[in-house]
Amino acid sequence: QVQLVESGGDLVRPGGSLRLSCAASGSTFRLNDMGWYRQAPGKQRELVAVITRDGNTNYADSVKGRFTISRDNAKNTVYLQMNSLKPEDTAVYYCNADYLDFWFRKKGSWGQGTQVTVSS
Over the stretch 46-74, which tens digit does the pLDDT of each residue have? Predict the structure, then answer.
C-alpha cells in the first residue's frame, strides 16, 4: 500500500557528506515513526536513526553528532544528512516507515535500499 524509495547514495571520500532521501507514496495513509537502517557486508542490519511524526529523534552511538535525521510531513519524506563520513559507514541504507492505512490499521514498509560507499 505504501512504497518507499530511497535516493542519494553515492561513493564519497572519508570526511565527506551525503544527504539521503526517502519518499513515501501510495494510497491514503498516515506516516508515524520513520527510520534509517543500514547493513554492511557480513553484518546484521542495524538502526541508524529514527524520527517520530512530531520530530523527536534518536541515533545510534556510532553516528551521533555526525548524522541528522529529519522529515517533511507535507511531502511524506524523511532525510538523513550524513557528515564526516567514515569508511565504517559503508553500507546499504534502508528507509523504514510505520504507518496507518485508510482503515487506521498499523502497517510497516521498507525501501529497497541505497548504497553508500566511503572510500579513499
Answer: 999 999 999 999 999 999 999 999 999 89
Tell me the three cell numbers of residue 118: 566511503
Count other C-beta atoms under 10 Å from residue 22's C-beta: 25
Kindly list the distances between the CA atom of residue 43 and the CA atoms of 40, 62, 63, 112, in Å, as whole numbers in the listed order: 5, 15, 17, 17
**Taking the alpha carbons of 49, 77, 34, 73 in that order, is the dihedral positive or negative?**
positive
Give the dihedral sign, CA 54/80/93/20: positive
Burial 57-79 (b: 16+ CB within 10 A, else e): eebeeebeeebbbebeeeebbbb
DSSP code for 73: G
7-40 residue pLDDT tens: 999 999 999 999 999 999 988 788 899 999 999 9
